[in-house]
Amino acid sequence: MILELAGFGIITGFISGFFGVGGGMILVPILLLVGYVMKEAVAISIMQMVFSSIYGSFLNSKYAQNVVKDGIVIGAGGFVGGLQSGYIVTNVSNEFLQYLFIAILIFSILRIFYSPAIHDCERREHSKVTLFLIGSFIGIIAMSIGVGGSILLTPILVGFMKYDLKSATALGLFFVIFSSIAGFVSISMHGQMLYLEGAVVGMASLVGVYFGIKIKHLVQATSYKKYILILNVIILIAMLYKTI
After folding, report:
1. DSSP string covering 99-146, please?
2. CA distance 157 to 174
3. DSSP 8-state assignment for residue 211
4. How many angstroms separate the CA atoms of 152 and 240, rounded?
5. Three-class SS of residue 163?
6. What is the pLDDT of residues 141-158, one digit of tens each?
């Protein structure tokens, strides 16, 4: 299974780099389809995100320096929220986590669909308290279902906070650093982490991240929005198939 996990890691890494996500939104459904249960898939996904988010944010830094200020505040909130995820994963059912994943996918699809890829108006400054609370809420939810949080953060940034889509996905991947490390610590403390499988997928994902980010910056913003919507719809179908 090691070679298969490495292959999943490369695919997940490319998705992570290109779409600015932690990778869990693609990795969790794949792992469910090949036989892992939800809590195992969440554990592997979270460890993979630590690898891909740090490397991806390093590669993104020269393209999206303007998002770092907000990203640190939102990320700090995500870290605090992510620390609570181990308690949630331990005390709720696999089925509840899967339905929560599906609900978040539907929200993301609708919010991105009705938001422009590039905003004409100037982005407003938001209070640090607001950014921190947004990060905390996303960290709790995202780490509990094995995603980095950008699946929730990106539609909020684009739809309500007037970020351009590419900047939002860069900030989303930066946010994943904080939330995934907190999730890793929390899941490990509760005895739910699969270290070997997570390390294999995480190391392999670095290859995909590199190429994903390179290609992302060659794509026009309007086309990029379509690709994000297509990805989310495909994952939603896979999750509905597995769950229902």
Report:
1. HHHHHHHHHHHHHHHTS-SS-SSPPPP--HHHHHHHHHHHHHHHHHTT
2. 13
3. H
4. 19
5. coil
6. 877 777 767 778 888 888
Q: For residue 90, count other CB atoms closer than 10 A to its CB.
A: 13
Torsion of CA 150, 18, 45, 74, to 10 degrees: -30
Phi-psi region of 55 (alpha: psi -120 to 50; beta: other; left: phi over 0): alpha
Helices (H), the chain: 2-19, 24-33, 38-60, 68-82, 85-91, 94-113, 128-144, 150-159, 165-189, 195-216, 221-243
Instruction: End-to-end CA distance of the chain: give it in Å, rounded.
Output: 26
148: phi then psi, degrees, rounded to nearest 5:
-75, -25
Query: pTM for the whole thing?
Result: 0.77
Whether the pLDDT of residue 208 is over 70: the answer is yes
C-alpha distances out from residue 54 to 140, 237, 243, Å = 20, 29, 31
Query: Which of the two residues, 124 and 243, has the higher pLDDT score?
Result: 243
- Output DSSP code: residue 149: S
In angstroms, the CA 229 to CA 233 distance is 6
Task: Provide CB contacts within 8 A for 180, sequence distance 6+.
Answer: 22, 46, 49, 50, 53, 82, 143, 148
Question: Is residue 22 classed as helix, strand or coil in its secondary structure?
Answer: coil
| pLDDT tens-digit series, residues 154-205 | 888 887 777 888 788 888 888 888 888 888 988 898 888 999 999 999 999 9
